Amino acid sequence: MKRFILLLAVVALVVAPVLAAEKEIAKPAKAAKAKPPEKDYWVEPMKKVHAKFTGEKGTFAHFGDSITVSMAFWASLKWTQKNIDKPTQAAFDLVKGYMKDDCWHKWKGDQYGNTGMMIMKWCADNADKWLKKLNPECVLIMFGTNDLGGVSVADYEKYTRQAVRKCLDNGAVVILSTIPPRHGADAKVKQFVEVVRKVAKDMKVPVSDYYQACMDRRPEDWSGASPKFKSVSGGTYEVPTLISRDGVHPSNPAKWNGDYSKEGLKHNGFVLRNYVVMMSYADVIRKVLKPEPKKAK
Predict the structure, then answer these.
(1) What is the pTM of this model?
(2) What does the pLDDT look like over 138-159, one tens digit per residue?
(3) What strands, in cross-sheet order, belong to the sheet with 207-208?
(4) Options 3.40.640.10, 3.40.50.1820, 3.30.420.40, 3.40.50.1110; which CATH number does 43-288 get?
(5) Is 119 exposed, middle or buried (0-12, 13-18, 19+ CB in 10 A)?
(6) What are φ and ψ of residue 263, in 5° steps?
(7) Disulfide-capable partner of 84 in 15, 103, 144, 260 (CB 3.0 to 4.6 Å)?
(8) Sign for the pseudo-dihedral over CA of 76, 82, 87, 89
(9) Which residues pair with 139 in a beta bridge?
C-alpha cells in the first residue's frame, strides 16, 4: 500500500508540470500592443524652426520638377473645387485665408524653384538662391521622378537631406513629399519613397505622402500606361486613373477636373496631389504657423 501511494506521488510530480504547461499553451496568446506612430512628431521641432523665420507670413514655395511647375498643380485648386466635403472645405478655407495670393500661381518657374526635367541635386545646389529671393515661410519639396533613371538611392538621400537642411536653416518649415508611382519602376520608386519618409522622420519635418495616396485609391490600376486603358479614347492626360498614359505624370481628365469627391480623387492625379498637399499645408498652418489657441478644460 505504501508503495502504491509513493507511486501515485511520483506520477503526480511528473504529470502536474506537463498538464500545467499544456494549459498555458492552450491559452490564447495576448496580442502585442503596437505602439501607435507619433503623428505630430514634427510639430514642436517645426515651431522652433519657425521661430527663426524673418520673412512674410503666408508665403508658400514649391520646389519641384514638371509635376510641380504645371498649372494643373495648386493653381487649379484656387479656381475649381466641386463636390468638396466639409473637412476638405475647411482645409481649403484655412489655406485660402492664410496663404499669400501670389503663391497660388505666380510662384511658378525655375526662379521660384520649379521647372521640368530637374532632379533633387538641382534643388540642393540652388535652394540657397531661391530662399534668398523668396524667403518663404513654408516650402514643399518633391523631386525624384527624374532621379529614377540614373541617381542612386544613396545620392538621392544625400541631396534630399541637403535641400531640407538649407530650408530649415533659413527658418522655413518644410513639407517633404513622396513622388507618385511610375510605370515600370515600382521597385526603385518604393526605395525613393522610403528615403523621403526616413529623412522626414530624422529631420522632424512633415510628409505629404502622395505615393501612399495613390496606392490607397488605385492599388492595382494606377497606371494609365497599362493595357487596361489602351482602348480608352483621349489624350495623354485624359486616362481615367491617377497616372497618365506616359506612365510618369499625374493624369488630369476633364471629367474629374476640380472634383474633390471620392471618385474625383480616384480618377484625377493632379486633383489628388492638390488635395494631399492642401491637407498637409493646412495641418502645418493649424499647428505651427498659426496655431489654434488651446481650449480651456
Answers:
(1) 0.86
(2) 999 999 999 999 999 999 999 9
(3) 60-64, 138-142, 173-177, 207-208
(4) 3.40.50.1110
(5) buried
(6) -70, -40
(7) 260
(8) positive
(9) 61, 174
CB 62 within 8 A of CB 107: yes
Determine what percent of the chain is predicted with pLDDT higher than 90. 84
**Residues 224-271 pLDDT 10s:** 999 999 999 999 999 999 999 999 999 999 999 999 999 999 999 999
Could you tell me the pLDDT band of residue 61, with boundaries at 50, 70 and 90?
Answer: very high
In this structure, what C-alpha cell is assigned to residue 238? 485624359
